[in-house]
From TrEMBL:
Organism: Stenotrophomonas pictorum JCM 9942
The protein's assembly and partners: Homotrimer.
Protein name: UDP-3-O-acylglucosamine N-acyltransferase
Highest classification ranks of the organism: Bacteria, Pseudomonadati, Pseudomonadota, Gammaproteobacteria, Lysobacterales
Record keywords: Acyltransferase, Lipid A biosynthesis, Lipid biosynthesis, Lipid metabolism, Repeat, Transferase
Ranges of residues in domain UDP-3-O-[3-hydroxymyristoyl] glucosamine N-acyltransferase non-repeat region: 24-88
């Protein structure tokens, strides 16, 4: 493993050293478990009591926490971001040699860059284009009329069903499905008929899609994720959804068709977004909330009830059914006083 001194890290990432600038590290760990030769960080005040007993050789923290640190520190405005950049120095990435595995099946009309890596049991469909230095992991399917720009990576068992366009450096984790048919149905004489899903999916540069996430293709126009959108595992993004740049979507969230989400939005775990509404830029939705109406003002929004003991919850649930009657009584009393 490589070794870095505090001074080298400070110069590389624009940090300030306090203590022994020659202190060196060869790895990273949590604040509670870091030992000699390791770097850790303090970002959440909840973990400040662990700082005094930390055995880490270097701690990344804010300036107002530095006095409580027993050893060498690196001062950062955002310790978590600084730690992420330093931690990346120790990440091992397997080398993927350019070439096409003998078990891969590639349509004659597809184009594959010579610098791309096509793994075992990959299928690439008609008229699809695989750009420079792309990595198509084992068992992945790239359907017809897909386009991957330079540096994309499908880790394993990723399915691009049809008409999916990926920008540069898009990373997709195992089991994700992009470009499947959207859930479009029309009732005709007591039976459902499918509404043709004729659009595609467009993913911007530097996006990352989590494992087993599904992004449906549009009905007429495309489903669109702008650049640097980050989507966690097990997320459902329905047809014709639009998500603005630099937004992040946590696991198990569901976004219904034709919803529009702005730039720099954060959606917590298990959030539900109703279709055909709009969320403006810089909105945070806390976990397990349901967005039923458009949001036009930046800020943090929540819905649902807090966790409580079951006995209290049952009482409150029973009273919830009485809220309409109670509201009518209050209104009636108010009118009498007038």
């Amino acid at each position: 493993m490589p070794t870095y001194t505090a001074q080298e890290l400070a110069e590389r990432f624009g940090l300030q050293v306090q203590g022994d600038a020659t202190a060196s590290i060869h790895g990273v760990a949590t604040l509670a478990h870091a030992g000699a030769g390791q770097l850790t960080f303090l970002a959440n005040p909840r973990y400040r009591p662990q700082l005094a007993d930390s055995q880490a050789s270097i701690v990344v923290l804010r300036a107002d926490d530095a006095a409580a640190a027993p050893g060498t520190t690196l001062i950062a405005k955002d310790p978590y971001t600084a730690f992420a950049k330093i931690g990346a120095l120790f990440e091992t990435v397997p080398l993927r040699e350019p070439g096409i595995h003998p078990s891969a099946v590639i349509d004659p009309s597809a184009q594959v860059a010579a610098s791309a890596h096509i793994g075992p049991h990959v299928y690439i469909g008609a008229r699809s284009v695989i750009g420079e230095s792309c990595i198509i992991g084992p068992g992945s399917v790239v359907g017809d009329d897909c386009q991957l720009e330079a540096g994309c990576e499908l880790l394993a068992r990723v399915s691009l069903v049809a008409r999916v366009k990926l920008g540069k450096r898009v990373r997709i984790h195992p089991g994700a499905v992009l470009g499947a048919e959207g859930f479009g149905l029309a009732m005709d004489g007591g039976h459902w008929i499918k509404v043709p899903q004729l659009g595609g999916v467009r993913i911007g540069d530097d996006c990352e899609i989590g494992a087993n996430t599904c992004i449906d293709r549009g009905a007429l126009e495309d489903t669109v994720l702008d650049e640097d959108v980050r989507v966690d595992n097990l997320v459902q993004i329905a047809h014709n959804v639009q998500i603005g740049a630099h937004s992040a979507i946590a696991g198990s969230t569901g976004i219904a068709g034709s919803a529009k989400i702005g730039r720099y939005c954060l959606l917590g775990g298990s959030v539900g977004v109703v279709g055909h509404l709009e969320i403006c830029d810089h909105v945070t939705i806390t976990g397990r909330s349901v967005v039923r109406n458009s949001i036009t003002e930046p800020g943090e929004y929540s819905s649902g009830t807090p966790l409580t003991d079951n006995r209290t919850w049952r009482k409150n649930a029973a009273r919830f059914k009485q809220l309409d009657a109670l509201a009518r009584r209050i209104l009636a009393v108010s009118k009498e006083k007038e």
